[in-house]
Amino acid sequence: MFLEFFIWGGWFVTLGTFLSKNLHATEFEKANVFSTQSLGAIIAPFIVGMIADRYFNAERILGVLHLVGAVLMYQMYGATDMSTFYPYVLAYMVLYMPTLALTSSVSFRQLTNPEKQFSAIRIWGTIGWIIAGLVISYFWDAKASEGALKNTFLLSGIASLVLGIFSFALPKTPPVKLDENEKPSFASIIGLDAIKLLKDKNFLIFFVSSVLICIPLAFYYSNANPFLSEIGLENATGKMTIGQASEVLFLLALPIFFTKFGFKKTILVGMLAWVIRYLLFAYGNAGELSFMLLIGIALHGICYDFFFVSGQIYTDSKAGVKYKSAAQGLITLATYGVGQLIGFWVAGYVGDKYKDLKATDLAGFWNHTWVVPAIIAAVVFFIFLALFKDEKVDNANAAH
Questions:
Q1: CA geometry: angle at 188 spanning 183 and 192, to 5°?
Q2: How far apart (Å, rounded) are the C-alpha atoms in residues 252 and 18?
Q3: Which of 114, 176, 368, 370 could form a disulfide with 281 if both were Cys (CB 3.0 to 4.6 A apart)?
Q4: Would 305 be classed as within a structural domain?
């Protein structure tokens, strides 16, 4: 888990800055690169569900994917323009996104009580992401030379090589044997079996809100590091790890909040946090108002945990035994796949629309850039507030 997320945090956080500084990418080119994460999320269920779960040991396919990933990382490290960089990053994300599910499935299969034991293992993923950010900020801060910034790919490539080799030493996790009659279709693997849940009006509103809230989320992934670096916030990458630290704290607070206030209020707090965060980014600066930026970063825990984790609990309670996996697959496909794919394109469009302002008024450019996702998040907040009827959610899982 530590290595899995160290690899991702080691290059993805500073990717926007790298694309601008090193490859001089346009806003749309940047959007296309970030969209590879969404394309990977859309293709991932096919690799994991149709291939890994049925034909190969999970730990072996995990090893192979990370070894090939290490080679692709090295190619990204050596790329000097967008035309060579893009095919490698696309191939890498198609191979990396399935490893997120594979690491979890290896864990779940080996644990005696996954509900209680898994969080203690998964937390090392967040620690890995934080350590990667601190390593980058210490050695290759975003203000460093162009040559230094590309070393993030070398760092992640070495970690990918280590994890690739180490994966073969993990406990054997063979495919689950199915009954003769049980042949999962591609539709069931990616969660299409769970589409019937959308007949429930409340679940439909939650589903649409999940897709829409991922549009402002994409702005954060693609713009946060370039924004903090360009306006001159010292040690921007290191300070962004505050977001992951808050994620750990609010993950611990979530069960208490969920039990006390219920699902609807928890989700609304998560949505409101997105609005506040982007307004803080829009009107803060690296000088006397730098505290606004730090609060905006620290809100990541509420933004992420209160919406996505409580959303997973809600989905689990609505799905019933038969459609549990399918429903989670559907929500993952909708958020990380479709929602963020739209989000990265919208972020690219907004950046391109105000690009002329950037040369003359950097603060004005970023103000416009952050106000847009704040408005989108506010609209989603009011849609959910007005249309979603509060209901009791069986929150037995909230404590896990």
A1: 160
A2: 34
A3: 370
A4: yes
Centroid of chain to Cα 357: 29
189 CB-side CA count, 13 A: 20
Nearest-10 crossing angle of helices 201-230, 236-283: 110
Q: Specify whether 159 is located in the same domain as 275.
A: no
> Residue holding tokens 């006397």?
288
DSSP string, 32-74: HHHHHHHHHHHHHHIIIIIIIHHHS-HHHHHHHHHHHHHHHHH
Report d(CA 135, CA 140) in Å as an integer.
8
Q: Residue 127 domain-assigned?
A: yes
The total number of structural domains that make up the chain: 2
List the pLDDT tens digit at each of the 400 positions of the chain: 999 999 999 999 889 989 988 999 998 999 999 999 999 888 877 776 667 667 888 899 999 999 999 999 999 999 999 999 999 999 999 999 888 878 887 887 888 877 677 778 888 988 999 899 889 887 766 455 556 788 999 999 999 999 999 999 999 988 766 555 556 666 666 656 678 888 889 999 999 999 999 999 999 989 998 999 889 888 888 898 999 889 888 888 888 888 888 889 999 999 999 999 999 999 999 889 999 999 999 999 899 888 888 887 788 778 766 676 667 777 878 888 899 999 999 999 999 999 889 889 999 999 999 999 999 999 999 999 999 998 776 544 444 4
Tokens matching residue 255: 């069960």
- Do 140 and 17 reside in the same domain of the chain? yes
Same domain, 161 and 235: no
> What CA–CA distance (Å, rounded) separates 234 from 141?
9
Q: Quote the pLDDT of residue 183.
A: 63
List the Cα angle 129/66/311 in 5-degree steps. Answer: 50
Report the CATH number at residue 17. Answer: 1.20.1250.20
Task: Using alpha carbons, select from 150, 172, 151, 135 the residue that is nearest to residue 60.
Answer: 172
Contact 39, 184 (CB under 8 A): no
Q: Cβ contacts of residue 355 below 8 Å, gap of 6+?
A: 27, 365
Backbone CA torsion sign across 173, 175, 179, 182: positive
CB 247 within 8 A of CB 339: no
**Domain match, 267 and 123 both:** no
DSSP letter at 79 equals: -
Q: What is the largest CA-CA distance in the chain?
A: 67
Q: Which of 278, 333, 273, 277 is nearest to 303 (CA)?
A: 273
